[in-house]
């Protein structure tokens, strides 16, 4: 029996750039002078693949894909690997799950040509007949970004912790410069215009970091703009300055938590909404997105401006605490390592900082939190908490 292949161009569900080659393999049959791809009832027919031939995966991850083949006769199919780079992979003999044995390192390629392009052949057998499909897996470099991050005490813990998480996720080239000031002194308006000696020094440090050029992300804290007649004040000035030497920079607005958590319900009612969940949603959607970011996008139409709802981690974890949904013994307020909040104003404890920084990892680097294994130090699945928050975030304000 001759095994024939038919190829066609078309889309496939795997997330890959460009156009993919999709392969259909089947047994050939028929008579006369024509071609007939129908299966024969009197012969055993080989399994048929439907799959993408080329994949791109990030370094430091193991999963590649699940190969699929069906047998026209309904026979059970088993899978195997061969080829010059087969030893680098594992294959589920019945599941078709393909993965790297060890997470690939872009800087130390382990393929036969040492070019981060792995070539293998997957075979599917029904015990009598078999079909094969050649795969090419390219490992992508996780080249980190250069960032300048400025903000106040509701911004600083995430900015300072982010580099640790980024390095752990494999972004070895990540770098950031952080400049911080307490309270209102750390919001863009005052970091730009406050005449105090301390903030003038901070301004000079931020400008010096931006003047170096090559900045990929310029991050600022969101602030209370409700009483401002010019909500973009400070933001506009900083973005215009950053663009002088960094024309392709992305602008991050990190949306903080609403302070004084003991008063959340009262403040929500005073604002005319049911609870803190509605109040924070209004803060993000109406004040940060529609009032601030949309205005900035109109002013700087060629600049990508995004948000991360960092403060939502405080709201969600506080609700989980009330619902006895945390797997850790934490206090509502107390020491940093053991509590949701460290003071009545609502400065973040470690469990909130870990979760909020995971939001940054997802929002800035696109890390799949379901496969990220950073050790947060807590039994509660903070990765799932952060992933759900980001899934609910408006994609129009994502990176």
What do these coordinates show?
It is a single chain. With 399 residues, the chain is α/β, with parallel strands linked by helices. The chain folds into two domains: 3-140, Sandwich (Immunoglobulin-like); 146-397, 3-Layer(aba) Sandwich (Rossmann fold), CATH 3.40.50.1110. It contains nine helices and 18 strands. The chain has helices at residues 156-168, 188-193, 197-211, 235-245, 264-270, 276-299, 312-322, 350-365, 382-392; strands at residues 3-10, 20-27, 48-52, 54-58, 63-66, 69-70, 78-82, 89-91, 97-100, 117-125, 130-140, 146-151, 175-180, 217-221, 250-254, 305-308, 331-333, 339-341. The chain has a five-stranded parallel beta sheet, with helices on both faces. A hairpin with a 4-residue loop joins strand 10 (117-125) and strand 11. The protein starts with a strand and ends in a 7-residue tail after the last helix.
Please summarize what this structure is.
The chain is built from nine helices and 18 strands. The protein has 399 residues and is of the alpha/beta class. A hairpin with a 4-residue loop joins strand 10 (117-125) and strand 11.
CATH top-level class of the largest domain: Alpha Beta
What name goes with the CATH superfamily of the largest domain? SGNH hydrolase
Order of helices and strands: EEEEEEEEEEEEHEHHEHEHHEHEEHH
Number of strands: 18
**Average predicted local confidence, pLDDT:** 89
Low-pLDDT runs of 5+ residues are 1-39
CATH architecture annotation of the largest domain: 3-Layer(aba) Sandwich
In the CATH scheme, what's the topology name of the largest domain? Rossmann fold
Helical residues, percent: 25-40%
Radius of gyration: 27 Å
Note the overall shape. elongated
Structural class: alpha/beta
Largest sheet: 5 strands, parallel
